[in-house]
Design brief:
The chain is mainly alpha-helical. It is built from three helices and no strands. About 75% of the residues lie in helices and about 0% in strands. The longest helix has about 35 residues.
């Protein structure tokens, strides 16, 4: 169990570091590219949320108690 907790804490570590970067060091083009990457990541996260929600809905429908 201890390994699982440690791996869970490491999730998003790279993103956390990126969010702390000093944006003054970036050029206009770099900042525009960064926004593009972040928007792409948001899109990817939203797609994953939709997939997981669909899976949960399917499981709920399968295991739902029949209504009397």
């Amino acid at each position: 169990m201890e390994e699982a907790e440690e791996a869970r804490r490491g999730r998003g570590a790279v993103l956390d570091l990126a969010l702390r970067e000093d944006l003054d060091l970036f050029s206009l083009d770099d900042l525009a590219d960064r926004i593009g990457f972040l928007e792409a990541e948001i899109t990817r996260c939203r797609a994953q949320i939709a997939r997981k929600a669909a899976g949960r809905e399917a499981a709920d429908a399968l295991f739902r108690k029949p209504e009397d």
